[in-house]
Amino acid sequence: MVDREAGVKGFSYTKEILDELVASLSRERLHTYLAAARGDRARAIRLHVWNTAVSAAFYGPLQGLEIALRNAMRRELAERYGPSWYDNPNAGLDKGALDRVTGARSELARAGYGNEASRIVAALPFGFWVSLTGPGGRRASGHKADYETTLWRPALRRAFPHREKLTRKQAHRPLDDLRILRNRIAHHEPIFARDLARDHERILDVAGWISPGTATWIERHDRVFDLLGSPNSMEEIRF
User: Fold this and answer.
1) Rounded distance, CA 163 to CA 157, Å?
2) Are 71 and 42 in contact (CB under 8 A)?
3) Looking at the domain assignment, is residue 2 inside a domain?
4) DSSP string of 143-159, one letter each residue
5) 112 to 99, 107, 119: CA distances (angstroms)
6) Strand ranges (DSSP E) for the chain?
7) How far is CA 58 from CA 83, 89, 132, 199, 203, in A?
C-alpha cells in the first residue's frame, strides 16, 4: 500500500520502504534531511540521494585541484629547500605538518613502499597542503612557526603564477573552505545547504591561479553545473 509519502515519476516510496530506509540510514543521519524536508520522509530521502549525487560530482573537480595544488607547491618548495624539503629545518614546518609527514612514511612502510619524495608527496592529504598556506602552528621546539617568512614569500607564492599580488591569506581562505567541503564529502555528510555554486566557482578560480588550462579541463569534464543548473535536477535523481 502506498501512503501519502510518495515518490515521483515512476518510483513510489511505500511506508514499508521508508521504514526500512530510515532504519538502514538511521534517523540520526537523516535528521538534517528531515529538517530541511519539514518531516516529509520521502522528500528527505530524495534530498539524501541528490546530496550523494552532487557529492560524487564534486569529486572530480576537487581531485583535479588537489593534484594541481600539491604538484605546484611541491615544485616550489623543492626548488627552495631541496627534494626532501619537508625534512629541511629551514622550511620551518610546524609539529602538525611534521607529524603528517611521519604518518605518510608509516603508511607507505606498512604498504611495502619506499619513502621516495614522490610517494610521500602523494600520500600527504589535502589538508596538509592547505595548512602550508596558513600562518603555521607550534614547532616541535615550542616556538611559533612563521609560514609567511619560511614558506610563502620564498616559495609558495610562485605556485600561483596566474594570480597577481596574491597574499597568503587570500590563498588560504578559499582553500580552507574547500578543505571543509572535501572533508564533508569524504565523510558522507550533508553539503546541500552550502552555496555549492560558489564552491564550484572557488575550485575553478584557485585552479586557474595555478594553471588556466587545468581549470578549463576541470570545468569541461565535471557534472556539478549540470546538477546545480536545473531547478528540477533533484527531482530527477533516482535509485
Assistant:
1) 9
2) no
3) no
4) SBP-HIIIIITTTGGGG
5) 20, 9, 12
6) none
7) 32, 36, 23, 9, 10
Global pTM value: 0.89
φ/ψ of residue 230, rounded to 5 = -100, 130
Domain count, the chain: 1
Closest CA to 218 of 198, 194, 201: 201
pLDDT of res. 9: 52
- For residue 195, being part of any structural domain is answered with yes
Instruction: Supply 102's cell numbers.
Output: 611521519
d(CA 114, CA 120): 9
Angle between the N-to-C axes of helices 15-25 and 27-36, in degrees from 0 to 180, rounded to the nearest 10: 120
98: closest CA among 135, 134, 131, 65?
A: 131
Amino acid 193: pLDDT: 93
Q: Is residue 145 one of the residues assigned to a domain? A: yes
What is the tens place of the pLDDT at every residue in 36-54? Answer: 999 999 999 999 999 999 9
Q: Mind listing the pLDDT tens digit for each residue in 94-105?
A: 999 999 999 999
Evaluate whether residue 5 is within a structural domain.
Answer: no
Rounded Cα gap, residues 81 and 131, in angstroms: 18
Q: List the domain range (segments joined by +) for residue 80.
A: 15-236
Provide the grid cell at 93.
614546518
